[in-house]
Amino acid sequence: MQAQNTASEPLLEVRDLEAWYGESHVLHGVSLDVREGETITILGRNGAGKTTTLRSIIGIVRKRKGVITLRGQDLLALPQHKVARAGLGYVPEERGIFASLSVDENLSLPPKIADGGMSIADIYRIFPNLEERRNSPGTKLSGGEQQMLAIARILRTGARVLLLDEPTEGLAPVIVQRIGELIRTLKTQGYTIVLVEQNFRFAAKLADRFFVMEDGRVVDTFATTELSARMGSLHEYLGV
Ligand SMILES: Nc1ncnc2c1ncn2[C@@H]1O[C@H](COP(=O)(O)OP(=O)(O)OP(=O)(O)O)[C@@H](O)[C@H]1O
Predict the structure, then answer these.
(1) pLDDT (tens digit, 9 = 90+) per residue, 18-62?
(2) Ligand 1 proximal residues by C-beta, below 6 Å
(3) What angle do CA 168, 170, 173 make, to 5 degrees?
(4) pTM summary value
(5) What ranges make up the beta strands (E) of the chain?
(6) Ligand 1, atom 24: nearest CA belongs to which residue?
(7) Best mutation site among 14, 17, 24, 26 for ligand 1, i.e. most ligand atoms within 8 A of its Cβ?
(8) Helical axes 143-157 vs 173-188, angle rounded to 10°
(9) Could you please report the per-residue DSSP string of 91-134?
(10) ipTM score of the complex?
């Protein structure tokens, strides 16, 4: 069947994705898709395979099978550095900033992968707290500041599709709120966002659609408008 219109076609599509760490078969057929400008959230218990899904998309996990396309381009065939160049930015759970370098230095280092990356001035406009800390080394930043710096670094590159792994983990509620505002700002600027979250209440305010993972598979998907009707089954999947 023909697609009805191009606007609803996925920008990023993952189909029947399987992945392995060595001999350990971890993903058993993950299927999900994200449209341009959309925010999706991947939910699931610890060990369900959420992080592995992001790592497989970005190409850190190399032993994979299935289909991953971005704007129709086959990402499975690309070496990792070319995946980033296709316009994907990944913020890992461990944040990956340079601890010994200052905020300014961290923001000066990311490679440009596409046009439209934010300037350092743009970054400081949306992260005023980072500007106040611009000469502080990464080690001296709070968890929330580190998270913001990790996201800011990706925004410097020009990536328009952001894969964010548990950005709120371990952060105080007031900082979680700040991260939520930031993601909302990015959404209004047209970024496409894949958010892995355990904090369901946080994700509920941001996502357009949800994908629920269990044992290396997507077992449910629904739009935010269906959320209240799904609460019962979600409690079961997530054990919350
Ligand atoms: N480097 C690794 N080597 C071997 N097995 C791994 C590795 N990383 C994760 N796993 C296993 O893969 C499975 C999926 O883990 P993954 O980190 O993707 O889950 P997750 O849903 O992101 O959970 P969490 O919220 O705990 O990070 C788990 O069984 C985990 O133990």
Answers:
(1) 999 999 999 999 999 999 999 999 999 999 999 999 999 999 999
(2) 21, 24, 26, 44, 46-52
(3) 65
(4) 0.92
(5) 10-21, 24-35, 39-44, 64-70, 73-74, 88-91, 161-165, 192-196, 209-214, 217-223
(6) 46
(7) 26
(8) 10
(9) E-TT----TTSBHHHHHH-SPP-STTPPPHHHHHHH-HHHHHTT
(10) 0.95
- Tokens 């890992």 belong to 92
Residue 78 tokens read as 């690309």
Q: What share of the chain is helix, strand, coil (3-state, %, to 5)?
A: 40, 30, 35
Number of residues written out for the chain = 240
| Calpha distance 231→57 (Å, rounded) | 28
pLDDT of 207-223, one tens digit each?
Answer: 999 999 999 999 999 99
Instruction: Name beta bridge partners: 109.
Output: none
- Predicted local distance difference test score (pLDDT) of residue 101: 93
| Largest distance between two CA atoms of the chain | 56
Rounded CA-CA distance 13/234 in Å is 24
Q: How far, in Å, from the CA of 52 to the mean position of ligand 1?
A: 6
